[in-house]
UniProtKB/TrEMBL annotation:
Gene Ontology biological process terms from the UniProt entry: translation
Gene name of the encoded protein: def1
Name of this protein: Peptide deformylase
Cofactor field: Fe(2+)
Single GO term (MF): metal ion binding
Family according to the record: Belongs to the polypeptide deformylase family.
NCBIfam families attached to this UniProt entry: PRK00150.1-3
HAMAP family given in the database record: Pep_deformylase
Catalytic center residues: E170
Positions bound to Fe cation: C127, H169, H173
Role this protein plays: Removes the formyl group from the N-terminal Met of newly synthesized proteins. Requires at least a dipeptide for an efficient rate of reaction. N-terminal L-methionine is a prerequisite for activity but the enzyme has broad specificity at other positions.
CDD domains, A to Z: Pep_deformylase (cd00487)
PANTHER family: PEPTIDE DEFORMYLASE (PTHR10458), PEPTIDE DEFORMYLASE, MITOCHONDRIAL (PTHR10458:SF2)
């Protein structure tokens, strides 16, 4: 194990010891760990330590609440992320956004590329590390996801719709990219009454007209 691997393991163990069965604090924009490239996961942790970290990430994501969480958001420069989406109640929103429920899963060293003939779709996004704001981001509607899961089983699959958006968002975190780097900044809105009205649209067409931006394609 290299010295950097050992340093990361010590960070993980310190975090686990500090929170116990609770949840971790989420690192916010401005912290350098969110702008660095995460260290590939290469068994720096024992199986029990990895299980404990995944459990902590799951608890923290759900408590936030969010639909994804990357290890750098806990201050850990390690290429791990968890995702889970219960979906939305509105059938119209679910259909337009292609937002099917996404069962909990762990992404280890994930990477993505646009799937063959993939189109792009633009919707509002937020981030647990950028609280109180949201903005429109154009992303691939379908991506090829590669990497592995927490057991070491290889991943190589096509992910579509809102699940593909979540995968892209969380994987971007591992390369030091925040969603705002890809956003249409004229769409930026606070999570207040007006902003929530924009984000509740199935597709942000009224926001586009009112705020003066073109929906990314």
């Amino acid at each position: 194990m290299t010295s950097r691997d050992q340093q990361v393991r010590e960070l993980v163990l310190r975090l686990l010891d500090g929170v116990g069965e609770g949840v971790a604090s989420i690192v916010r924009a401005g912290h350098p760990v969110l702008r660095g490239v995460a260290l590939p996961y290469d068994a720096q942790l024992s199986p029990d330590e990895l299980t404990a970290l995944v459990s902590l990430m799951r608890r923290t994501m759900r408590a936030a609440p969010g639909v994804g969480l990357a290890a750098p958001q806990l201050g850990l420069p390690l290429a791990l992320a968890v995702v889970e989406d219960p979906g939305v109640a509105s059938e119209t929103v679910a259909e337009v956004r292609e937002r099917a429920p996404l069962p909990f899963r762990v992404l280890v060293n994930p990477a993505y590329e646009p799937a063959l003939h993939a189109e792009r779709a633009a919707f509002y996004e937020g981030c647990l590390s950028v609280p109180g704001l949201q903005a429109v981001v154009g992303r691939w509607r379908a991506v090829r996801l590669t990497g592995s899961d927490e057991t070491g089983a290889a991943l190589d699959e096509i992910v579509t719709g809102w699940s593909a958006r979540i995968v892209q968002h969380e994987t971007d975190h591992l390369g030091g990219t925040l969603y705002l780097d890809r956003a249409e900044l004229r769409s930026l809105a606070a999570a207040d009454q007006i902003g929530l009205r924009w984000t509740s649209e199935p597709r942000p067409e009224a926001a586009s007209a009112a705020l003066g931006f073109v929906l990314p394609t």
